Every structure is written in structure tokens, then in C-alpha cells.
Amino acid sequence: MNEKIERNMPKIPHPAIALIPIVTLIALLAVILTIFKSDSLSGGSQVALILASGICITIAMTKYHVKWKAFEDQMHKTFGDVSITLIILLVVGMLAGSWMISGVVPTLIYYGIQILSPNIFLFTACVIAAFVSLLSGSSWTTIATIGVALIGIGQALGVNEAWTAGAIISGAYFGDKMSPLSDTTILASSTVKVDLFEHIKYMMFTTIPSFTITLVIFLIAGFCFDTASEVNVEHFLNGLSAKFNISAFTLIVPILTGVLIAKKTPSLITLFLSSIMAGITALILQPHILHEIAGQQQQDILSTINGLTTMLFGSTQIEMGNDALNELVATRGMAGMLNTIWLIICAMLFGSVMIASRMVESITRVIIHMAKSRTSLVGATASTGIFLNVVTGDQFLSIMLTADMYKHAYKRKGFQPKLLSRTTEDAATVTSVLIPWNTCGMTQAAVLGIPTLVYLPFCFFNILSPIMSVIIAKTGWKITQNPPTDNPVVTSKVSV
Prior knowledge:
- By secondary structure, the protein is mainly α.
- The chain has a domain at 83-336.
- The protein has helices at residues 2-8, 15-36, 44-63, 68-101, 104-115, 121-136, 139-157, 161-178, 183-192, 196-222, 230-243, 252-262, 267-285, 287-294, 301-313, 323-329, 338-356, 359-370, 374-392, 395-412, 417-431, 439-448, 452-455, 460-475.
- The longest helix is centred in the N-terminal third of the chain and has 34 residues, at 68-101.
- Mean pLDDT is 85; it is low at 1-5 and 488-496.
């Protein structure tokens, strides 16, 4: 049966041919970045992805006779899988706007800059993000809530935004990776058929060293910065208290959000309900700001509804009397997520056609056959996870494809499945946020307001994780191997 299916499938392209769309994409993106710079995600990158997709389709249909139906089927599958992500992005836009205008984020910033020391801020931000993400099982929820507040606190304390984003992302992805509630953790373990808690326990041997080194770096860096003076901090405090009703009442919103997280409420529902609670708080405590957003002289119910609705879907600019504060409290709502959604759709298109044409499979087969030793096998697995994050633009696809491609190789060489599930997470899960056109990279850049390539050098945990995975494999620490089987390597068809 498998042989019959294989015969009916399109021929696998030569690896050199399969690299053409990828090389084209990289070249186009380099040109786009040179021309448009920080505005490259507003359309230029999307054009590059579509053109590279067109080249892939042209090669596959003309040279390898791939039917258009194969591309359509894969698109239906891929876009169906990512649809919930697009909805979450819209709700994250609502959340960001409502948490700011309601006074939740300003209150957290107001108290945070008085409590946190600039010297240990990066260390503390990383630990806080890790703790919240460990409880929630979601890096996205963590970054969209407490992460936004920590960015504001860092600005007030004079800490470089890129460093702050790196600390937040490092902590959030550590917690996401190690949480039994995380969808990526569950996916990696279930795809390889490893017990969830055995998978998490085994990840500690690579994850804890990576996170420890990350915390040490942030701690040392904090004492090397020339942070803001007390005058600047006081200016932030006075500006926030003059415009917003700073009240402990606003903290009810993050507290109730924490309760929803503790009750394992789905992320989409948690984010939506948190936005609604913040909207109610804005009506009670910040009606004057809602009227300012509406821009209407008459402060009636229609003006309030106008401001409340705009807060959720559109851009808001509040006059704080200072450019730094104006930028701090500006929001973009759901509309601010549209470029990100646009880019995700184009990235999913490229990933779909690369999978349907079997070009992804062609390249990864070469990588698999190059893996001879334990270290090279783990290194190849990690490299494939990163490569698939680049090509498919989605960490869930990367996790599933990586695990599926290597499970036979690990079995043949006598390695336990948990080594594969751990390596997959060490690479595919945490590096997704480092790719500008990956769903994770685009989302966190949009939420934090910092381009992916700007915060990338400071996401030490995400960079160290795949490296640590290879280092541990080289030492052989806690890695057992049964006698290799005599079965030949079987490379699974890429199916998602």
C-alpha cells in the first residue's frame, strides 16, 4: 500500500533544485530590507514570499508535473491549522489596546518602576515572564499581558528596549517549553509518543543550563548599563498619574486573568475575557481618555462608545505632554495586527507550496542521511527544526515535520524517542520567535513594538537552546542507546 502511494506521488526534486525558491526568497528579502528597512513587513516581505512561492509552483508543475490540486489541498490543510492563530492575533490587538487605555499597563508601570531596580530589571523581567508562562503554558499570552507592561517599565527605567524584549521572550519561551499546559510541549511529546511528564523531565538536562546561562548574562548586563536617572523616573510617574486614574482597582483585571489561566481556560477565551474586563475598567476609571480618543466635544454615551470601540480596533494617540510618554501609551488595536496577519498568510502560502512540491522533503532527506553519529543526528534534528521554521513559517508545522522525519532514524540507531522529542523542542519551539516571517516572530514583534531582527541578538535562551542540545549530545549525558537495528532508514513522507 505504501509503495502504491509512493508511486502516485510527484517525484522528489533534486536538493539543488529544491533550494532555488529558498535562495530566491533570501535574496528578495535582502533587497526588500535594504530598500524599505523597518517598513519591510508592511508589504515588501509579503511580495517576496509570494514571488518565491510562484517560483516553487512553476518549477514543480513544469519540471516535476505536480498537479495544482496538490497545492490546493496543502493550502487548505495549512491555512486551516493556522486559522485560530489569526483570530488570537486580532484578540491580542484588542487586549493591548484595552489594557493600556483602561490603566492596567500604566498602573503596572507606575508601581513597577518604584519597586524594580534598574540593575536587576532584566534578570527580574526574565524570571517574571518565565513564571507567568510556566503557569499559563503560553508564551503568547505572557508576552501580550505582562510582557507589554515590562516593556513600559524598562523604558521608564532607561533600559534598552531590545534587551528588555530579549529578557521577556527568553523567559516566556522557557516557561512555555517546560509547562505541561503548553500546546507545543504536548504536541512534541505526543507526535513522538513520549509520556508528557517524562518529556518535560528529560528537557531539564538541556533547558535548565541554557536558562541559567541566560539569567547570568542578564544579571551581569544589568550592572553594566547606564540607566535613567531618578529625575527621568519621577517624570514618568508624574506624567502617568496626571493623565490616568492610577488605582489598585485596575489590578483586578490581571488578577482575574491569572485565575482564568490557573483554571486552564483556553488562550483565546482568556484573552477575550481579559479584554472585556479591561474595557469595563476603562468605562469606570478612564472615561475622560475614552472621550479624548473619540475626539468629540460633547461627552455623551455615543462619545464613550466611540472611544471604547476605537480602543479595541484602532490606533490611539493620547497627549501626555512628552514624546516618550506619548509613544509609551500609544496603541494600535486590532488594526495594528493586520500587517502581521497579512505576512502570516503569505508565509503559510510559501510553506504550503514547498511541502506540496516535496522540496522540503528533498532537502531534509539530505540532512538525515548525513547524520551518522549521535552528535550529528541531534545536530541534524536541530538544524532541521530551525530550517523548517524558516521555510514553513510556523512552529507547529516545524515540530510535527521534524518529529515525523526523524523518528525512524532514532529508532534504527537505538535512541529513545524522548531524545527526539527533546531535540525537536530545543530547536523548533524556541527558535520560531527569531524568524521575522514566522508566526511567532511576527506576533511578538507586533505586540512588543520591536522588530524581530532587533531583539533577536538578546534572546539568549532561544539561541542557546539548540546549541546546548548538541553539546549535551556530544557529552552523552543521560543519553542511552540500544543496539542499532538492521532496518534501513525510512524517511517518512512529509504530511501535515
